[in-house]
């Protein structure tokens, strides 16, 4: 089977034994926060149902679930890699049907002069235009179709993650917390002086 087949087999085994996972999670408090670091094999998110089944079990158990799709800065080295990464992220978003953020990781390795903004907001028009000049003409329609698909869904954008920048880490966490509405049911715990208005 090879490493990819082994991962698929392992995830199918987990799905066949979801009751075990549910029992393990049942031992924690209601407001505990779990992070599942899932395998990066795109097959698990594109055409197999195993990750969707895990998500559905978590939702049935009362968990608020969000997807965080990570790609590293190697995907912005050239436009074709970026289109590939954006399409993979879109595939996961559509198939998992979850509140979702896409994270561009390892931004601490970016060179100062790197223009990252066009990749954060998925400026596919500029990216496809760049591909027209750098790739053979026979791929032009394919590249344009992929760019158009990303534009039509209008879902793909990225949050940058720089492990050297605490604000960057907090921003990513804030996006995830917003997706799952973490802490929204908690009562404020500080002392607040309300100014009395004039009646």
Question: Would you mind describing this structure in some detail?
Answer:
- This protein is mostly helical.
- The protein is 50% helix and 7% strand.
- It is built from nine helices and three strands, in the order H-H-H-H-E-H-E-H-H-H-E-H.
- It has helices at residues 2-16, 18-25, 43-46, 50-60, 79-96, 117-120, 124-134, 140-153, 166-180, and strands spanning 67-72, 100-105, 159-160.
- It has a three-stranded parallel beta sheet, sandwiched between helices.
- Helix 5 (79-96) links the parallel strand 1 (67-72) and strand 2 (100-105).
- The model has no long low-confidence stretch (mean pLDDT 84).
Number of strands: 3
Physical arrangement of strands within the biggest beta sheet: 1-2-3
Structural class: mainly alpha
Largest sheet: 3 strands, parallel
Strand percentage lies at 5-15%
């Amino acid at each position: 089977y090879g490493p990819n087949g082994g991962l698929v087999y392992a995830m199918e085994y987990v799905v066949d034994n979801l009751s075990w996972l549910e029992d393990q999670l049942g031992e924690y408090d209601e407001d505990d926060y779990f992070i599942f670091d899932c395998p990066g094999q795109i097959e698990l998110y594109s055409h197999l149902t195993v990750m969707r089944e895990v998500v559905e079990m978590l939702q049935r158990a009362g968990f608020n679930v969000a997807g965080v799709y990570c790609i590293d800065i190697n995907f912005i080295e050239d436009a074709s890699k970026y289109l590939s990464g954006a399409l993979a992220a879109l595939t996961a978003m559509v198939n998992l049907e979850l509140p979702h953020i896409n994270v561009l990781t390892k931004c601490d390795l970016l060179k100062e002069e790197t223009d990252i903004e066009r990749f954060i907001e998925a400026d596919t028009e500029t990216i496809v235009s760049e591909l027209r000049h750098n790739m053979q003409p026979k791929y032009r329609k394919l590249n344009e179709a992929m760019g158009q698909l990303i534009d039509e869904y209008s879902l793909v954008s990225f949050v940058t993650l720089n492990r050297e920048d605490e604000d960057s880490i907090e921003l990513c966490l804030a996006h995830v917390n917003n997706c799952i509405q973490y802490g929204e049911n908690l009562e404020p715990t500080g002392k607040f002086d309300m100014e009395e208005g004039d009646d």
